[in-house]
Specification:
Length: 473
């Protein structure tokens, strides 16, 4: 298609492009303007552009004055256009819409009956008047997470979440609820999800719960598996088989609260036997891996839940508990009664902290602190006096042809880790079976390809080398 010539002021241009370049105008702007009916002079800005015509303008008359559109009239009366249009939609007259005449009066009773604490009120205002509170105060309190009795002033208000300096602190009261004396996370019905993660390679499953989208929870599992060395069975399997071998599916989401959801998790783990035949490490539910904690008369399933409830960073909350703060002080309900570490007396010597005492006796500060928290005396914690009645006291191990004074020497002699022994003992193995399976490089077996004898600690290893593993049988 030949280029369109343009003649302007007696000069001929071979195309729109050369014309636009001659006047320093973007070519696309010139094309669009000419196609919209602008003159050549208007297209290059030498004349005023044509006036825009409102395609949906509606001529109106307000108090005898005519306007070309509602926008024009709203601008004249200095009112927001959206407000005027809304009034017209509601059936107001033009004079009422533009504030010249009185607005129409409401017809009929627009209040809605409400139920509150077993009583029926004709409106929320009547309820607030009954409890002698300002209008809408009860609604605001309930929205912030107060119970109905607290909102009405019958029960004391919840703890005011403030920092030590007195400034307001973010609260998470609205995302929790109290059931049978315990505090649980709160979500809408349908958001309490029970899910299963399945390994397509061996069909083993992990059963879990969440209140977020299950795909989001699945991505969290993948991130934890490949960005940490956490020893959870699911994460070890993901690192072994790869993330593509795993998928997630929703089992059900009909729980009405978090407590019901945990009961569903417990039952599902038991039904699928996913501790023995899957990737779960605990029975789930309220009997799972979390450690209960009571703060200010409220019982939380974990330390993390208590920290979130009171708006405290989890690491800060746990550090305070470890360093001798009361639970209420850690949650900043009570003021902390000290400005530094707690003093400790060991054999009559006063140390300024557990850490200082541990350093003096050449002991790990973490070990000493853990022992003190577990109720050991300072002398027992520092290793000066033997702690009586310990469950992990050394026990001699007797095998068919040898014996060991303790489990540590048993592991060193066999060339395997203490963690392996603990795991197998938990599964019901005796020490002889562990020794036969893992000692001196593992049990002797024959390669399924070449028939050569080799030793391996893994029970399911079938090949003596990678060459045999990847060769055709």
């Amino acid at each position: 298609m030949p280029a369109k010539q343009i003649i302007y002021k007696g000069k001929t241009y071979t195309s729109i492009k050369t014309f636009a370049e001659a006047y320093g105008i973007n070519k696309q702007n010139v094309v669009r303007r000419l196609n919209s009916g602008w003159s050549v002079a208007q297209a290059i800005g030498e004349e005023e552009p044509p006036k825009r015509k409102a395609h949906n303008a509606q001529k109106i008359c307000v108090a005898g004055k005519k306007f070309g559109s509602v926008r024009q009239a709203a601008k004249f009366f200095n009112l927001p256009e959206k407000r005027v249009k809304r009034r017209i939609q509601l059936g107001w007259t033009m004079e009422q819409s533009f504030g010249i005449a009185e607005p129409p009066k409401l017809i009929g009773n627009h209040s809605v009956q409400i139920e509150f604490l077993g009583k029926t009120f004709p409106s929320s205002r009547a309820r607030d008047d009954y409890y002698n509170l300002p209008y809408n105060m009860i609604n605001k309190r309930i929205k912030r997470g107060w119970t109905e009795k607290q909102a009405a002033g019958i029960d004391p208000p919840p703890h005011r979440h403030r920092n030590i300096d007195g400034s307001p602190r973010k609260t998470n009261l609205s995302v929790f609820e109290e059931i049978d004396g315990r505090v649980f996370h709160k979500a809408n019905v349908g958001e309490y999800k029970l899910y299963a993660v399945t390994n397509s390679a061996n069909k083993k499953q992990y059963i879990g719960v969440t209140t977020s989208a299950i795909q989001t929870r699945f991505l969290q599992h993948i991130y934890n598996a490949f960005n940490s060395t956490r020893p959870a069975k699911l994460y070890r399997a993901m690192r072994k088989y790869g993330k593509d071998a795993f998928s997630i599916e929703l089992i059900r989401n009909d729980a009405e609260n978090y407590k019901q959801l945990m009961k569903q998790e417990y039952d599902e783990i038991e039904n699928r036997n996913s501790i023995t035949d899957g990737y779960n490490s605990s029975v789930g539910g309220e009997l799972g891996t979390g450690q209960e904690i009571e703060v200010d008369g409220k019982i939380f399933m974990t330390h993390a839940a208590a920290a979130e409830y009171y708006g405290i960073e989890q690491t800060k909350f746990n550090w305070r508990i470890r360093n001798g703060w009361t639970k209420e002080q850690a949650a900043e309900i009570d003021d902390w009664d000290g400005a530094g570490p707690k003093q400790i007396v060991v054999e009559g010597i006063i140390f300024r902290s557990i850490q200082a005492a541990a350093k003096h006796y050449k002991l790990s500060a973490n070990s000493a602190s853990q022992r003190i928290r577990s109720g050991w005396t300072p002398e027992e914690a520092m290793g000066l006096v033997k702690k009586e009645g310990l469950k992990n006291e050394e026990v001699s191990i007797e095998l068919k042809d040898r014996s060991f004074p303790n489990q540590a020497s048993f592991c060193r002699s066999g060339g395997f880790s203490d963690a392996t022994v603990l795991l197998r003992r938990k599964e019901g193995w005796d020490y002889q079976k562990i020794w036969d399976q893992y000692a001196n490089g593992g049990r002797e077996r024959a390669c399924v390809v070449c028939g050569e004898l080799f030793r391996a600690m893994r029970r399911n290893k079938k090949y003596c080398s990678d060459k045999c593993k990847f060769s055709k049988k």
